[in-house]
């Protein structure tokens, strides 16, 4: 069981977890491709498609998008309810908080800065002359990469894996939830719920703080 009174890590997924949107779907909307891209996103999150292949296919549809269009999605940043309060709560207790995403560094670095997260990792989009080329720089951050990143952070900060928590919502988060000392499914797809140690059913991340506080009071 995780111990909130000892140093630990919470590693969050980004899209539909720390923030309320799927960035790639909203980017696709800007170029009239949302319906097509959203269908692929949903299938990937259910675990029906290979994530890396599906990501490449979706990014190809974003060719020609400019940075100003990306900026529209973060004005303001659509944080999930409780995200900012939960990160503050964790930091007050000496815990680290980080984000890992199958989305994009363009978003993750801004979200990490706004929340004062301790680390972030995501896919990098390829740009040429200020426009997206429709390609993602390899290797793709997939489910295995997310689990590996959790282990990397635990080693970096000398935190036992037993005191790590992973929070996500889709099939691409499955490996990191299984690797963590505690896996939390946040308003999640069935593929993730079945491997989670605990599920947040309502869209409020501060429920995790309440759960951890109660859990440690009883022990």
Question: Would you write up a description of this structure?
Answer:
- Its cofactor is Mg(2+).
- The longest helix is centred in the C-terminal third of the chain and has 14 residues.
- The mean pLDDT is 93.
- The chain is of the alpha/beta class and 219 residues long.
- Helix content is 42%, strand content 20%.
- The protein is globular, with a radius of gyration of 17 Å.
Q: TL;DR?
A:
It comes from Pseudidiomarina halophila. It contains ten helices and seven strands. With 219 residues, the chain is an alpha/beta fold.
Outline the fold blueprint:
Blueprint: E1 9-12, H1 23-30, H2 34-45, H3 51-60, H4 67-72, H5 83-92, E2 96-104, H6 105-115, E3 119-128, E4 131-137, H7 143-156, E5 164-168, H8 174-179, E6 182-186, H9 190-193, E7 198-200, H10 206-217
Parallel strand pairs: 1-2, 1-5, 2-3, 5-6, 6-7
Antiparallel strand pairs: 3-4
Helix pairs in contact: 1-2, 2-3
């Amino acid at each position: 069981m995780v111990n909130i009174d000892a140093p630990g890590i919470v590693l969050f997924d980004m899209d539909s977890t720390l923030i309320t949107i799927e960035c790639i779907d909203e980017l696709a909307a800007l170029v009239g491709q949302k319906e097509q891209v959203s269908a692929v996103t949903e299938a990937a999150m259910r675990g029906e498609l290979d994530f890396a292949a599906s990501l490449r296919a979706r990014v190809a549809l974003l060719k020609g998008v400019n940075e100003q269009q990306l900026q529209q999605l973060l004005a303001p940043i659509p944080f999930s309810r409780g995200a900012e309060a939960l990160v503050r709560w964790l930091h007050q207790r000496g815990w680290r908080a980080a984000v890992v995403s199958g989305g994009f560094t363009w978003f993750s670095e801004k979200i990490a800065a706004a929340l004062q997260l301790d680390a972030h990792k995501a896919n990098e989009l390829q740009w040429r002359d200020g426009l997206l080329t429709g390609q993602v720089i390899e290797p793709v951050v997939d489910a295995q990469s997310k689990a590996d990143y959790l282990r990397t952070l635990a080693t970096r900060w000398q935190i036992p894996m037993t005191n790590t928590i992973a929070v996500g919502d889709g099939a691409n988060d499955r490996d990191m939830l299984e690797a963590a000392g505690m896996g939390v499914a946040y308003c999640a797809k069935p593929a993730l719920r079945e491997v989670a140690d605990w599920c947040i059913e309502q869209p409020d991340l501060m429920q995790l703080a309440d759960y951890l506080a109660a859990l440690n009071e009883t022990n």
